[in-house]
From TrEMBL:
CDD domains: Ferritin_like. It comes from Mycolicibacterium parafortuitum (Mycobacterium parafortuitum). It holds the Pfam family DUF4439. This is DUF4439 domain-containing protein. Coiled coil: none annotated. InterPro entries: DUF4439, Ferritin-like, Ferritin-like_SF. Residues 24-160 form the DUF4439 domain.
């Protein structure tokens, strides 16, 4: 048997809860970790005029992550841990690529929070997830407007409809 001080990092990693609602919350926290990391990449490639949007988005995701961690811990579960690094879903070599990544991350986060809305039975968690989903949709719209999209909103954020 391994003692705690000799346990590997893999042994210490929390596992995804089996309950659908808590599992979805665990997944949404993991997406928040990845999004915060990704905004570091967005920041590195954005033009200075976009710094306000980058900093607003990072602050929003950090606050949401911390509140979500408190929610999952209140349910007696452990939160997903951040990875040491993440692979971006696309090449990021320009300010346009950075804007595209920001929109993609907001869409991915909206999808994760929609899953929480759909799967949790806890009303406090559902209300939190609805707010998170809405905030992701608004931030995605802000990024779409910044990149000059003709349509900046989607009918059902976080879904494929």
């Amino acid at each position: 048997m391994t003692s705690p001080e000799n346990a590997s990092t893999e042994d210490a990693m929390p596992t995804r809860p089996g309950d659908a609602g808590t599992g979805a919350l665990f997944d949404a926290i993991a997406v928040e970790h990845a999004t915060i990391y990704g905004y570091g990449v967005v920041s590195a490639h954005s033009i200075p005029e976009m710094n306000y949007l980058v900093s607003d988005a990072i602050a929003e995701h950090r606050a949401r992550r911390e509140a979500a961690i408190a929610l999952i811990e209140a349910q007696g579960a452990e939160a997903a841990m951040p990875a040491a690094g993440y692979t971006m879903p696309m090449e990021i070599d320009s300010p346009t690529d950075a804007e595209n990544l920001a929109v993609r991350m907001e869409e991915d986060a909206a999808t994760a929070w929609r899953a929480v809305v759909e799967q949790t039975a806890d009303q406090e968690v559902r209300a939190f997830a609805v707010t998170a989903l809405t905030e992701c949709a608004v931030t995605a719209a802000r990024w779409r407007a910044a990149r000059g999209d003709a349509t900046v909103t989607v009918a059902f954020p976080g879904g494929s409809e």
